[in-house]
Write a structure and sequence with these properties.
Length: 369
């Protein structure tokens, strides 16, 4: 009927036939039914105050309580904090700063060399203006003690990532637009079988940081090409079979030394599966190449954790491929006070190109699959 007005009609039961105040129903079987009509109008408290000055003060107090924690005044779309509402860092702290929650992508699982992290961008219409996000990457240096970490990088989302300035290992995958508030980052150049800790802060236009949000993730075991490992196992058998010349010894040595620990594990596995009757792999290496060269090769087998060592003993390891879309941004100067988060996707089309990244995963299975 009108803005702010609500009308409700409710049944209050039926009148007994003996009630003389009720209208007689046209049907003797249908009892009269009284209806209660209630009309209410919602209005701000300050509108109920007739004094103009009091109304203004009440409105200002209400706005202060809503947007400035009651410790400042609303000026247009920002808070002017009282002198008592400044933090230890000297920055105004009356307007609550949104707390972004960092999470792992629910669509793209971590690979041995990258993870995809996400959070939702949010800021109130009045109070603070979020102008940037900071993300820190730390590597856990002790498998048994996660408190021992090494900080590898701290990047600004605006200055380092979407500007294309210095983020070859970090690329935006999704940025906010009018339909979504999600920010998604691809973080590459990670080491396999390693635990990482990522920390996120929001930053407002005064330089104040939000409460931090953390994610800890362990990257999977290194990717191996099992088909190639089988081929190398066959090649090594052929080189070791019969009389082995100096040239064949050197070829075998160079081939095995360049493999790296994960692939060497698979070569050892396949060799022993097919050719162990001619001598176990480590014994044949020592016999054909000598203790020193064999030791240099076999020492690589200890570089893996017990977890990955166990997985690399699976009868079959497939190679699974998936693709990730990301924005490759060339260098451009982004002004944190001059862009709109809701228009960021549109604005980055001028300086960023959408590309596709291929990601590899180990697919562990048995012989019959």
């Amino acid at each position: 009927m009108a803005a702010g007005v609500r009308m409700e009609c409710q049944s209050r039961g039926r009148c007994p036939s003996s009630c003389p105040l009720c209208h007689v129903s046209s049907s003797p079987d249908a009892l009269a039914e009284p209806i209660l009509l209630e009309v209410t109008k919602a209005a701000p408290i300050y509108e109920l105050v007739t004094n103009n000055q009091t109304q203004k003060l009440l409105q200002e107090a209400t706005m202060s309580s809503l947007w400035c924690s009651g410790s400042g005044d609303v000026i247009e779309d920002w808070c002017r904090c009282d002198s008592s509402a400044f933090g230890a860092d000297g920055l105004p702290a009356c307007a609550p700063l949104p707390h972004p929650l960092l999470r792992l992508s629910t669509v793209h699982e971590p690979s041995s060399s990258l993870v995809v992290l996400e959070w939702e961008h949010s800021e109130p219409p009045i109070g603070v203006q979020v102008v940037d996000y900071l993300i820190r990457q730390e590597k856990v240096t002790d498998r048994l003690d996660h408190s021992k970490v090494e900080t590898e990088m701290v990047l600004s989302f605006v200055d380092d990532i979407i500007s294309g300035a210095k983020s070859p290992c970090v690329m935006p995958s999704q940025v906010p637009d009018k339909l979504s508030t999600t920010i998604s980052l691809i973080i590459r150049c990670l080491e396999p079988d390693t635990t990482y800790m990522f920390t996120l802060w929001g930053v407002d236009n005064t330089g104040r940081r939000s409460q931090s949000s953390d994610v800890t993730v362990k990257t999977p075991c290194p990717v191996v090409d099992d088909v190639k490992a089988q081929e190398i196992a066959d090649k090594i058998y052929n080189l070791f079979n019969g009389y082995t010349s100096g040239k064949e010894q050197q070829t075998a040595y160079n081939t095995l030394l360049d493999l790296g620990s994960p692939s060497l594990h698979r070569v050892l596995y396949h060799y022993n599966q097919h050719y162990e009757s001619f001598g176990e792999f480590t014994w044949r290496c020592e016999d054909e190449l000598g203790p020193r060269k064999a030791g240099l090769i076999l020492s690589q087998l200890g570089d893996l954790s017990a977890w990955c060592h166990g997985l690399l003993q699976e009868p079959k390891i497939g190679l699974q491929r998936t693709s990730l879309k990301f924005l490759a941004c060339r260098y451009s100067e982004i002004k944190p006070y001059g862009f709109s988060w809701l228009e960021l996707s549109r604005d980055l089309k001028k300086t960023c190109e959408e590309q596709t990244l291929t990601v590899l995963y180990n697919d562990y299975g048995d012989k019959d699959n």
